[in-house]
Amino acid sequence: MRLLDRYLLRELMVPLFYCLVGFQIFWTAFDLFSNLKSYQDGGLGWLQIGKINLLRTPELLATVLPIALLLALLYALTNLARHNELFAIRAAGVSLARISLPYFAVATLLGGALFVVTEFIAPKASAKSTRLLSGGDTGTGQWLSNLNFQDDAMGQMWHIKQYNPATGEMIQPVVGWTTTEARMELFAQRGAWTNGMWVFYVVELQTFEPPTKVLPSNILTTNVWAGQQIGGSPKQLQAEIKIAELEKTEAAKNLKLSLADIIEYRKLHPSMPPDKAAMLMTQFHGRIAQPWTCVVVVLMALPFGAMTGKRNVFTGVAGSVGICFFYFVLLRWGLALGTSGHIPPVVAAWLPNVVFAGMGLGFLLKLR
Q1: What is the pLDDT of residue 302?
Q2: What is the mean pLDDT of residues 5-30?
Q3: Euclidean distance between CA atoms 333 and 178, whole angstroms
Q4: How many angstroms separate the Cα of 115 from the Cα of each of 110, 197, 355?
Q5: C-alpha distances out from residue 38 to 32, 41, 122, Å
Q6: Handedness of CA 169, 170, 176, 181 (dihedral sign)
Q7: Gap between the Cα atoms of 223 and 200, Å rounded
């Protein structure tokens, strides 16, 4: 790494650290005061409230990280321009594109880290915070009652009296499916996911031949029944629960689903109604587009921060506020239109990045 790269990175990393910490504290405090009444109504102590906010930190990072990077970049670049350091570097024959390389490297690393956090860490942390908020602990003791779902891929209908999403255990499940020759209904006292399949205990399997027959033509009772023909893995059930609980208005405001949730849900429902497909595919493409926000931030910050002349560093702060405001307005607008089906999900998800990247590239060409 060249001496110039190390210098530029050092000038960026210090304000980036302070911006990340500052914005994280701000969003955590805002979330705390917004939900304080619900915490009090739930009888939660300060230790439990602290755990909830700690578990929500990965989810908040999706909002905090791009804003912190933008503010840190504008601050660093404005400070360099204010002391004519950028002018001196470019006068030495170093192009603006070469100057921006370490910034794009940081943005790429942060974008990758953001994808890992939002896809693998944040969903589990959010589930634990939900269990802590509703049950007072993050353990596996929470049970859902009267769960119904349909496996369209295998043509099966499920009804589960009680289900533990953390362990995959179920009490009194009922599964029904129909073939060309017969209709099957399985009644069990309990079930568990073992070795990649459902295993049911104290089972009564009723067979109706033909499918339209009212009374069963055969009844099989057994203590243990391995359901190789039964679909719906715990991951798919979890996706079904999460998506069933997701309000359309909430999906139009923020990205709430991971790629894994959407993929598992589509395994259960290969064919979906247009309104459901619009909402899920907008969330899907939004998750893919989200990490690229960090790269777009660099494209926007470079022309605004690299303008020569002695300027106050708070000019960068004011610029970042304006850019963030318009970006999030466009993001919400795109999510709302994509979720409602007015524009294609790909366009809805990528619209803010494409618009701001195009603006940034246009401004950069003028600075060459």
Answers
A1: 86
A2: 91
A3: 44
A4: 9, 30, 21
A5: 10, 5, 22
A6: positive
A7: 8
